[in-house]
């Protein structure tokens, strides 16, 4: 059928959205973990 | 414990009240929430001629033909809900899924000759998902002719088609 | 130093879930399951999507457009499921004053909003070629759009107040009020005439879907569900750690 552009758009938007959300969540976690480690290091030193 | 139980009852009580309120509102407006009217509803409770309404039903088998008034091809077909049928005229491109035996929604108005002139025709698809082979097997076995409506219940499919590997 | 105080009623209660009232316990549990949830999530989604896109049959009347179902249906289920999660968090927060409930609600909200948006967008991309329109105001589509706005409202309320506790409370109330949209979404196609077709799956009879399409759908759903859980856990972990950071900075 000639409706492939709709199919491609649907899968494309999903991958981009989920991918973006995952990257955002992961970097948020990494940033906080780094900050926590930094503070705990400062307290020790 | 006592304060927690009290909070529990307050929350539950509020939610029950809200649920009742919503049920009452929905049942009161039920008529206005329907997206389309069926042909028998339209015939029994006719709206003023010329008002735009949505008509939903199944395209009657062997009722589709094209006429050529004013050089623009007009599709003419009947839409039924099993109890009554209404003739629909539509000038324009019909959706891909349109065929006899398919459920459709026509948006337009009924004129004085009880002919529904549609500005837009949407095709519904039913909740059945099956590959071509299953559809063809059902048709070959004589159990189903798509022109006359939706396929038989899924429970019966396995008896007509060999299970795929 | 990393423990936050647990209300005494939680310790006395025999209800198991209060083990997780201690953020430390949750963090330890979550760190154990996280790699598995992520790995299996990616595995199931990959299998499901490749199967659905390339190895499942085209529908007899919809052709290849039916393959949008493998995304649209899991998103729809997770959208409602996510909001139900918000409602559960709200109950835990308002009635049992569970310390993690508000943070969990804060984590679920944005993810649920994205999933609901994807459900609506993939639905439109499916509807345009099949029905002939991007959108109709029938009961199913409208109630899912309402769900999207409920998510947005929830996120907004959480950040609307100077006093964070007021924000948590307001959001929890919205979650409990909005949860009544969920049965409307589910039963809209049965109660009223809609353009959206009725349910393919029912508890009482065989699904109106061939197995060759149902299996990739199941894999996709499991994959997306695991992914949803993984993302919520990651966000919740980040929120708990952020709270610890703030504690430490305040105690300097």
Automatic annotation (TrEMBL), chain A:
Belongs to the CcmD/CycX/HelD family. Required for the export of heme to the periplasm for the biogenesis of c-type cytochromes. InterPro entries: Haem_export_protD_CcmD. It is found in: Cell inner membrane. This is Heme exporter protein D. Its main location: membrane. NCBIfam families: cytochro_ccmD. The chain crosses the membrane at residues 6-26. GO terms for biological process: cytochrome complex assembly; heme transport. One of its GO terms (cellular component) is plasma membrane. Pfam families: CcmD. Keywords: Cell inner membrane, Cell membrane, Cytochrome c-type biogenesis, Membrane, Transmembrane, Transmembrane helix, Transport. It is a single-pass membrane protein.
UniProtKB/TrEMBL annotation, chain B:
Its main location: membrane. One of its GO terms (biological process) is cytochrome complex assembly. It is a single-pass type II membrane protein. Heme binds at residues 125, 129. InterPro entries: CcmE, CcmE-like_sf, NA-bd_OB-fold. It is found in: Cell membrane; Membrane. Transmembrane segments: none annotated. One of its GO terms (cellular component) is plasma membrane. Residues 156-165 have a biased composition (Basic and acidic residues). It comes from the Bacteria. GO terms for molecular function: heme binding; metal ion binding. Gene3D superfamilies: Nucleic acid-binding proteins (2.40.50.140). Residues 29-165 are extracellular. Keywords: Cell membrane, Cytochrome c-type biogenesis, Heme, Iron, Membrane, Metal-binding, Signal-anchor, Transmembrane, Transmembrane helix. Heme chaperone required for the biogenesis of c-type cytochromes. Transiently binds heme delivered by CcmC and transfers the heme to apo-cytochromes in a process facilitated by CcmF and CcmH. This is Cytochrome c-type biogenesis protein CcmE. It comes from Commensalibacter intestini.
UniProtKB/TrEMBL annotation, chain C:
InterPro entries: Cyt_c_assembly (IPR002541), Cyt_c_biogenesis_CcmC (IPR003557), Cyt_c_biogenesis_CcsA/CcmC (IPR045062). This is Heme exporter protein C. The keyword Protein transport does not apply. Keywords: Cell inner membrane, Cell membrane, Cytochrome c-type biogenesis, Membrane, Transmembrane, Transmembrane helix, Transport. The gene is ccmC. It comes from Commensalibacter intestini. GO terms for biological process: cytochrome complex assembly. It comes from the Bacteria. It is a multi-pass membrane protein. The chain crosses the membrane at residues 36-55, 75-96, 108-127, 139-158, 170-193, 213-234.
């Amino acid at each position: 059928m000639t409706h492939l552009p709709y199919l491609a758009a649907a899968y494309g938007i999903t991958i981009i959205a989920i991918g973006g959300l995952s990257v955002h969540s992961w970097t948020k976690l990494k940033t906080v973990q780094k900050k926590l480690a930094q503070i705990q290091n400062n307290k020790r030193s | 414990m006592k304060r927690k139980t009290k909070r529990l009852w307050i929350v539950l009580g509020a939610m029950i009240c809200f649920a009742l309120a919503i049920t009452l509102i929905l049942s009161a407006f039920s008529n206005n929430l329907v997206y389309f009217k069926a042909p028998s509803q339209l015939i029994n409770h006719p709206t003023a001629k010329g008002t735009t309404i949505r008509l939903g039903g199944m395209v009657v088998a062997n009722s589709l033909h094209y006429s050529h008034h004013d050089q623009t091809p007009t599709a003419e077909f009947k839409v039924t809900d099993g109890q009554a049928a209404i003739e629909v005229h539509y000038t324009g491109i019909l959706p891909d899924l349109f065929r006899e035996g398919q459920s459709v929604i026509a948006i337009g108005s009924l004129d004085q000759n009880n002919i529904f002139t549609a500005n837009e025709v949407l095709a519904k698809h039913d909740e059945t998902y099956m590959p071509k082979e299953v559809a063809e097997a059902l048709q070959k076995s004589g159990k189903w002719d798509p022109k006359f409506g939706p396929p038989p219940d899924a429970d019966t499919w396995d008896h007509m088609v060999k299970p795929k590997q | 130093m990393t423990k936050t105080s647990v209300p005494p009623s939680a310790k006395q209660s025999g209800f198991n879930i209060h083990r997780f009232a201690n953020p430390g316990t949750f963090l330890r549990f979550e760190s154990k399951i996280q790699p598995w949830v992520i790995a299996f999530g990616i595995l199931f989604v990959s299998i499901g999507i490749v199967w659905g896109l390339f190895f499942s049959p085209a529908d007899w009347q919809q052709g290849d457009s039916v393959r949008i179902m493998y995304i649209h249906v899991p998103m729809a289920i997770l959208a409602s499921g996510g909001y139900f999660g918000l409602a559960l968090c709200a109950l835990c927060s308002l009635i049992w004053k569970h310390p993690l409930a508000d943070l969990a609600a804060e984590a679920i909200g944005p993810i649920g909003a994205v999933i609901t948006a994807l459900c609506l967008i993939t639905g439109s991309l499916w509807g345009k070629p099949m029905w002939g329109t991007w959108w109709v105001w029938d009961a199913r589509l409208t109630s899912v759009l309402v769900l999207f706005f409920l998510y947005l409202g929830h996120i907004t309320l959480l950040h609307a107040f100077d006093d964070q506790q007021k924000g948590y409370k307001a959001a929890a109330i919205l979650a409990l009020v909005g949860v009544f949209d969920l049965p409307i979404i589910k039963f809209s196609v049965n109660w009223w005439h809609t353009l959206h077709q009725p349910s393919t799956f029912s508890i009482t009879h065989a699904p109106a879907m061939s197995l060759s399409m149902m299996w990739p759908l199941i894999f996709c759903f499991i994959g997306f569900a695991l992914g949803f859980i993984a993302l919520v856990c990651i966000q919740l972990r980040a929120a708990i750690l952020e709270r610890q950071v703030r504690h430490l900075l305040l105690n300097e």
